[in-house]
Specification:
The protein is built from two helices and 26 strands. The protein is 7% helix and 40% strand. It has a four-stranded antiparallel beta sheet, with no helix packed on it. Strands 2-3-4-5 form a four-stranded antiparallel beta sheet, with no helix packed on it. Strands 6-7-8-9 form a four-stranded antiparallel beta sheet, with no helix packed on it. A hairpin with a 5-residue loop joins strand 12 and strand 13. The protein is mostly beta strands and 354 residues long. The longest helix has 20 residues. The protein has one domain: TolB, C-terminal domain (Neuraminidase).
């Protein structure tokens, strides 16, 4: 539990950040006095498991026939039914029907889509990566199924390999742009976080990361969380404050994974501002739940390495959907595949715009 005085300091800093964002601070952003929890790398201790995960909660396998599932997103917007769309980086997007349980192909090819997200208008945004068939762009699919490029360049240079994305209340689309796979020549010589403004302008938000992966925003819009996941370097959960022009500043390290551990992939946020981060492998594969300060709250085990997660909407707002490697299929002698899981939790998930 956070000491009241420390919590007040955290809240004061967040309020200061929000005020700066509203006025559009110019020049060098100030460094905010954020107080974080100390920990030794790789020592995760769940301190509030029962507050996050019901005692009788069970992880349910919904589908298990993907090459590499990623980027689950709940359908939102006018007339949306809350179905779960997810990428299979075998180059397609699937739709899981929450009512019938059926899984069908929504789009193929998908430009090697990774992270997916619906906005409040019902448009599906996709981070399309590199490698064979990869479009290296952020695309948008309208409710009628037509899709087009939303952005594919910064300063005239092609993106590296868009990985994950999030959208703010005012329509700014943030995305991470690392390069894990793909032999295509790179035009951008660093791996950063970018923001696409509503007018289409692409701006560098920060390059204070080594290999940015998952990205989410706090419910109050003041903090952006980024997974810095470099297999040969940093494997950290980062928090940044945000200015109105899209710039991310005041980087804080909330958690560091230990030597040899698999870092964070995709993430989700609940209505209290807690961060649900997919990470780890083997016995440590699962969803790690952190408070906004970095306090370690809960752990949800998955049978194989998880890749991303999202909360449902409507009656399923407290249901967390997870893409992850599925269980071994010993009896059928089939290779281990990637699938879609879900688990009912205690706190509803947060979606920008409701």
């Amino acid at each position: 539990m956070t000491h009241p005085r420390t919590q007040r300091s955290v809240n004061t800093a967040l309020l200061l950040c929000a005020s700066l964002a509203m006025v559009g601070c110019q020049g060098s952003p100030p460094v905010l006095p954020i107080f974080l929890f100390d920990h030794k790398p790789g020592e995760f201790q769940a301190t509030a498991q029962s507050s996050i995960v019901p005692a009788d909660a069970a992880l349910e396998l919904l589908w298990n026939d993907g090459d590499f599932t990623e980027g689950p997103a709940a359908a939102r917007g006018p007339g949306a039914d809350g179905d779960i769309y997810f990428s299979d980086i075998g180059n397609r997007i699937y739709k899981y029907d929450v009512q019938s349980g059926d899984v069908s192909v929504y789009r193929e090819p998908s430009g090697r889509s990774n992270g997916l997200l619906f906005d409040a208008k019902g448009r599906l945004f996709a981070a399309e990566g590199a490698n064979t068939g990869g479009a290296r762009r952020i695309s948008v699919t309208d409710p009628d199924g037509s899709h087009q490029t939303y952005a594919d360049r910064w300063n005239g240079k092609r993106f590296n390999s868009p990985n994950d994305l999030m959208i703010t209340r005012l329509g700014d689309v943030y995305f991470t742009d690392p390069r894990y796979v793909g032999d295509e020549p790179r035009e951008i010589d660093f791996e950063g976080v970018f923001v696409i403004k509503p007018d289409g302008h692409v701006k560098l938000a920060t390059k204070e990361v080594q290999k940015p992966n998952g990205i989410v925003i706090s419910p109050d819009g003041s903090t952006v969380y980024v997974a810095d996941n470099n297999p040969n370097g940093n494997r950290q959960l980062l928090a940044f404050s945000r200015l109105i022009d899209g710039t991310l500043f005041s980087k804080r390290v909330l958690y560091t994974f230990g030597q040899g551990e698999r870092g964070i992939d995709g993430m989700a946020v609940d209505t209290l501002g807690n961060v649900y981060a997919t990470a780890g492998n083997g016995d440590k594969a699962g969803v790690y739940v952190f408070a906004e300060t970095g306090a370690q709250l809960a752990f949800i085990k998955t049978p194989g390495s998880p890749t991303n997660c999202t909360f449902g909407v409507g009656e399923e707002q407290s249901t967390l959907y997870i893409t992850a490697r599925g269980p071994l299929q010993v009896e059928s002698n089939k290779p281990q595949r990637y699938g879609l899981f879900r688990i009912k939790l205690k706190i509803p998930g947060f979606h920008v715009g409701g």
